[in-house]
Specification:
By secondary structure, this protein is of the alpha+beta class. 67% of the residues lie in helices and 9% in strands. The protein contains ten helices and four strands, in the order ααβαββαβαααααα. The protein has helices at 9-32, 44-47, 70-79, 108-122, 137-165, 168-196, 202-232, 238-270, 273-308, 316-321, and strands at residues 49-55, 86-92, 95-103, 131-135. A four-stranded antiparallel beta sheet has the order 2-3-1-4. A hairpin with a 2-residue loop joins strand 2 (86-92) and strand 3 (95-103). Helix 1 (9-32) crosses helix 6. The chain is elongated and about 80 Å long. Mean pLDDT is 84; it is low at 310-322.
Length: 322
């Protein structure tokens, strides 16, 4: 199968624009939501507070016979003055026998009272599996600032590297494609935060940095093949050169993406709660990266080179021969 990406470039751009626009709308709604007040639902890593994880002790007879009713947990939290807390059920041995509560900073007495009230309603907890973490608001702001700064530095580094290795227009369109992947990933997580209450933590920043590296790597492979072909056939239409480069590197891109996805899906399914959404962010970003390298970065280069008339749109000689 041979792809002719330039013929449908309007379609590729429209698909990306729609996905990004929906994500931006979700970010605006999320920011205006009084319970979130941010483009993405932030975890305690960024806003500070207390995270409590309680897992029932199923070794006690009858303690885990009934499933945990999340509405009962919310009622208990509300009775303790914690009605605005984020509450999620967690799986233990294939059953939802645990809960995670993310809330404001709690004193030791408040934590004890909450645990006692929950024990009375849903069963005794296993002290070996209970976890309590506290994060200060100042540390949360530092984590967010450091993450954003790391992203900005990575973008600057990519521009400098590609400008020296290729040309400035290659660098610009590679950054556009990378920003596309970041916005797609962030937009989808914003939607997930609104609909499912999924939060982003410091690992999400790590995922975004990993996605930028993966996306640029894919784009560089295609750009390198374009540059080599341009040296050999400088008079060939740029659209043909890019189409050939994409098709020559397509199998490599697909194989690399698929093998990476297998590992990420394994982490998503079996890696536990901590790595679940980190791997999901990478899955979304890597899919977006493979897409943008082929359908965004490449077609934008065609559009720009044809617009500046640096290379002919059609080769008269090959047209007459055909």
């Amino acid at each position: 199968m041979r792809l002719s990406i330039n013929k449908s470039r309007g379609l590729w751009w429209t698909i990306s624009a729609v996905i990004i626009l929906v994500g931006i709308i979700s970010m605006v709604i999320s920011t205006l939501n009084p319970s979130i007040k941010a483009p993405l639902r932030p975890s305690l890593d960024f806003i500070g507070g207390t995270r409590l994880q309680f897992v029932r002790d199923c070794g006690k007879p009858g303690n885990c016979d009934q499933p945990i009713d999340i509405n009962v947990v919310r009622e208990v939290a509300k009775s303790q003055g914690l009605g605005d807390s984020s509450i999620q059920l967690i799986s233990e041995n294939g059953q939802e026998n645990g809960i995670t509560i993310r809330t404001k900073n709690l004193e030791t007495e408040q934590r004890t009272n909450l645990q006692t009230a929950l024990t009375e309603k849903i069963g005794a907890f296993d002290p070996q599996k209970n976890q309590i973490d506290s994060v200060g608001a100042t540390l949360g702001k530092e984590l967010f600032t450091s993450g954003v700064l790391a992203l900005i530095v990575s973008f600057i580094g990519i521009i400098i590297y590609l400008s020296f290795r290729f040309q400035w227009d290659y660098a610009i369109f590679a950054i556009v494609a990378t920003l596309h992947d970041v916005f797609v990933t962030a937009g989808i997580f914003s939607i997930l935060g609104l609909v499912l209450g999924i939060e982003v933590d410091s690992l999400f920043i790590v995922a975004l940095l990993t996605i930028t590296g993966f996306s640029v790597n894919d784009t560089v492979v295609i750009y390198d093949r374009i540059r080599e072909t341009l040296k050999i056939n400088p008079d060939q239409p740029i659209a043909d050169i890019v189409d050939n480069a994409v098709n020559q590197t397509l199998s490599r891109s697909i194989n690399t993406s698929l093998t990476t996805m297998l590992s990420l899906f394994a982490i998503f399914l079996f890696g536990g709660e901590t790595l679940k959404y980190f791997s999901l962010a990478l899955i979304i970003g890597f899919i977006a990266g493979a897409y943008s390298s082929i359908f965004i970065a490449s077609t934008l280069l065609i559009w720009w080179r044809e617009r500046t008339e640096e290379y002919p749109v059609e080769n008269p000689v090959s047209s007459q021969e055909g």
